[in-house]
Amino acid sequence: MDESVRGTLEFAGVQLAAVVAGLHLYWAIPRLVTAARIDQPIYWDPRPLLFILSGIGILVGLVLVRKQLLSRIRAYSLGIGLMLTYLLGWAYWHLGGHMAVLPWVDDGHGHAHDGNPVVVLAEGGNSLVAEGADLKDASPREDVAVAVKEVIEFPGDGNEIEDRFRLTDDSGVSYHYFGEGAVGDAFGGAFIYTNDKTVSIGLAYRIEDAVTSQPKPEQTLNEFKSHPAVAPLVRGGRTVEYTAKTIPEGGADAMPDLVHDGAVLVGDTAGLVLNNGVHLEGTNMAVESGYHAGNAIISAIANGRTDANALLEYPRNLEESFVVQNLERYEWLMETAVEDKDLLFRDLPRAIADASEEYFSIDRDPKAEHADDAKDRILQTIGGWSGAAKLAWRYRKVMTS
Ligand SMILES: Cc1cc2nc3c(=O)[nH]c(=O)nc-3n(C[C@H](O)[C@H](O)[C@H](O)COP(=O)(O)OP(=O)(O)OC[C@H]3O[C@@H](n4cnc5c(N)ncnc54)[C@H](O)[C@@H]3O)c2cc1C
Fold this sequence. Notes:
This protein is α+β, with helices and mostly antiparallel strands. It has 16 helices and ten strands. The longest helix is centred in the first third of the chain and has 35 residues, at 3-37.
């Protein structure tokens, strides 16, 4: 072969080999970093590691040839061998359905890179799609509350809400109610809060109570609206919106599996709500779960995968976030409060009301006597000073870590 043609071909060959090495390294390095970050076993997708090794091998080979430590003929043979390996590897991987390199390891992570979708199930607490697809069990009644809410508008001069709720400027207000006047015998509570131009009024209680003892939620809400402490706040208003919704209350223990092959569960569908009488949060948790789920999906797709194992980054990050930490913090509270329901929502409020009446009575008896009687009325209800100490100990975690 003519020496100049040979030189040109060699030059082109070296350039081509360097480009092949560069492209493989460019593709593989970020993927290997991601795989390491989410602890993905290397045999699920060995391409990043193999591409990096072969890319480095090509570059080292070029240097060795240049330094005359490797003969040209041997370098050509190795190059042809590597090219064939790439071709065979490509065929095995892409035509073989992306199964594991260790075919005897059956962990169900075969996948394809032709756009397998990931479905984000964000359908709220009443998760008919997730349950229908066997991605989640139907929640037991004691883990679910039913909520109804009306949005009320008032005719008038535009200051109706400010006047009724004694507000100024842009301020708003939220009232929470517990006990008989709010939800009868049920375990739950009611609320009223102001919006810009409307007022929301509603209540939530265990669906168990709705099914067994309590009147239907809409009837309970009507009764709450006619309570003398509430009626003046909503009188004359027009209901412009009516909502009914379930609230998952099972806490961290009741969370379903969050990732499945091609699907993730977020927000209320994943049971991420803190509704325990102390806090009512769910929107923030839904947003946080969506954020972590989205990131996990991006990582998984970057690796050409959409199976459950590839999406594990989502539950891992959620576990470390405030969402699961807060759910776990209050895991004990619902159960304890249900056990103490009569004391907390009936007997103690009554005792406090009676004690207040006693304390503020005006008659010929000295104040010290009224104060003693008021204190006795409360102590009687909670089992004396030792009962008070037990109660404080029982609920200490509301205030401590
Ligand atoms: C009365 C009440 C008061 C609350 N107050 C607070 C509060 O003060 N602060 C707070 O942080 N959280 C509060 N929450 C909780 C909060 O509303 C939820 O945690 C939050 O809305 C959950 O968001 P999500 O997107 O997971 O579900 P959702 O908001 O329930 O959204 C799910 C959506 O999916 C739709 N959907 C369902 N099935 C399908 C389907 N098959 N196809 C298409 N669409 C479907 C539904 O119509 C709905 O629009 C309250 C909840 C209730 C019931």
